[in-house]
UniProtKB/TrEMBL annotation:
Family indicated by similarity: Belongs to the methylthioribose kinase family.
The keyword Cell membrane is assigned to this record: no
Source organism phylogeny: Bacteria, Bacillati, Bacillota, Bacilli, Bacillales
Any one Gene Ontology molecular-function term assigned to this protein's record: S-methyl-5-thioribose kinase activity
Pfam family name, one: APH
Keywords linked to the UniProt accession: ATP-binding, Kinase, Nucleotide-binding, Transferase
NCBIfam families the UniProt entry points to: MTRK
Species whose genome carries this gene: Bacillus yunxiaonensis
Enzyme class per UniProt: transferase
EC number, UniProt record: 2.7.1.100
Subunit structure: Homodimer.
Residue span, Aminoglycoside phosphotransferase domain: 34-274
Protein name as catalogued: S-methyl-5-thioribose kinase
Length: 410
């Protein structure tokens, strides 16, 4: 009798009999090996492989609390959302997401393509690796998955059905708290401030009424603007890369929200990579080459997205009013304005809030880390307060570089 007819949280010893029962690709359990490989904030991830046959899969299971903290009580429905979204994205951008082999609504598992021949992008960037296809692939993913799931393209009733299908209240609440609320208040217990910047944060983040007002507006836009189906957590830890391949993973935070949320997360996390490289690579050709590639990538994320978005608009738009002359560019600029604001939000929350990024926390020299944080925080405020001035990739890059230059002269 199967032991997988009632939900329980699996350990590595359970996963091999699980895949033998559920999948036909494996022939001999004695040849299989299994290892837990997940180090994320929410789920349990296992790799199962047959060395002799060269076959392997990833098994991802959702628990009812977050691994980052038992305070976060979560519905295991998120794994259903992730499986659904990966399959939908697979139709919209076939080569840019892993294949899904199985969704199990009893064990709350998703079994998918093994990407062990790829590297997590955040790790690769911290090792100062260059990926020539990265900006092209990420912008193709965002332009297609965002525009093609919006009211501009979809039948409005069908789109509203998707909105209902991807209601994701527990994970949205995590975003609302960790991105849009807690980093801007000094009375919660979860913020962790780096001592060298604590005073500056209290004065220039917590006590900035204009900033807090803008963030309040952004929070309620995030909660109410069901613009497109978002990945919802599109940072450099949610992207696998090889020189010739990019794969976007982990869309468990997916829901219908403002397009700029995904794009801004990408830009902010590339800025973290820039700040890490600036702090950790010694002056010379290596640093110049790598920093130049990162700067071009940041610029290209905005500019290539804009080009592809308008091109896709011309091909796929269905709504009659969306065909009004100039409406496409007005719409795009509103997306870029949201993108700038979210870039700022992500920069602040990863430094001030609970969920840090290794790009910053791994900087050993305390003065260098303090400088990296301050550059990001100062730029973040401008991205939020002057969001409407960010219309091109160069606008985004210059906000970053101006703050780096101004800080270095103090």
């Amino acid at each position: 009798m199967s032991k997988f007819t009632k939900y329980f949280l699996m350990e590595s010893s359970d996963v091999i009999p699980y895949v033998m029962e559920k999948l036909s690709m494996f022939e001999d359990a004695q040849r299989l090996q299994c290892k837990e490989i997940g180090d994320g904030n929410l789920n349990y991830v296992f790799r199962v492989w047959d060395e002799e046959k060269g076959t392997s899969v990833i098994v991802k299971q959702a628990g009812d609390t977050a691994r980052i903290s038992d305070e976060f009580k979560l519905s295991t429905n998120r794994i259903r959302i992730e499986s659904d979204v990966l399959q939908l994205e697979g139709k919209l951008v076939p080569r840019l997401v892993p294949d899904v082999y199985l969704y199990d609504d009893v064990m709350n598992c998703c079994v998918m393509e093994d990407l062990s021949d790829h590297t997590i992008l955040r790790t690769a960037l911290m090792n100062h690796q260059i990926f020539p296809k990265l900006a092209d692939d990420l912008t193709t993913f965002m332009a297609n998955t965002l525009l093609l799931t919006s009211d501009v393209v979809m039948n409005h009733k069908e789109k509203k059905e998707l909105v209902k299908n991807y209601i994701n209240p527990e994970l949205c609440e995590i975003t609302e708290d960790l991105v849009y609320s807690e980093p801007f208040t000094d009375h919660n217990k979860r913020n962790e401030l780096f001592p060298l910047n604590e005073g500056w944060i209290r004065e220039h983040i917590y006590s900035d009424d204009e900033l807090r007002m803008e963030v309040a507006k952004l929070k309620f836009a995030f909660m109410t603007n069901a613009q497109a189906l978002l990945h919802g957590d599109l940072h450099t830890g949610s992207v696998f890369v090889r020189k010739d391949s990019t794969k976007i993973i982990d869309p468990e935070f997916a829901f219908y929200g403002p397009m700029g949320y995904d794009i801004g997360n990408v830009v902010a996390n590339l800025i973290f990579a820039w700040a890490n490289a600036d702090a950790t690579i010694g002056s010379g050709v290596e640093k110049d080459t790598y920093m130049n590639w990162l700067e071009c990538t940041i610029t290209d994320i905005i500019d290539l997205f804009s080009v592809k978005f308008l091109e896709a608009w011309n091909v796929h738009v269905t709504d009659s009013m969306a065909k009004e002359e100039g409406f496409d560019r007005w719409y795009l600029q509103s997306v870029l304005e949201d993108t700038a604001a979210v870039t700022g939000l992500e920069l602040i929350r990863r430094i001030v809030g609970l969920a840090k990024v290794k790009d910053i926390t791994s900087i050993v020299d305390e003065e260098a880390r303090a400088r990296a944080e301050r550059i990001c925080l100062q730029a973040a405020k401008l991205f939020i307060l002057q969001a409407s001035t960010h219309k091109t990739g160069n606008d985004f890059l210059q906000t970053l570089k101006t703050q780096a230059l101004s800080f270095s002269t103090k």
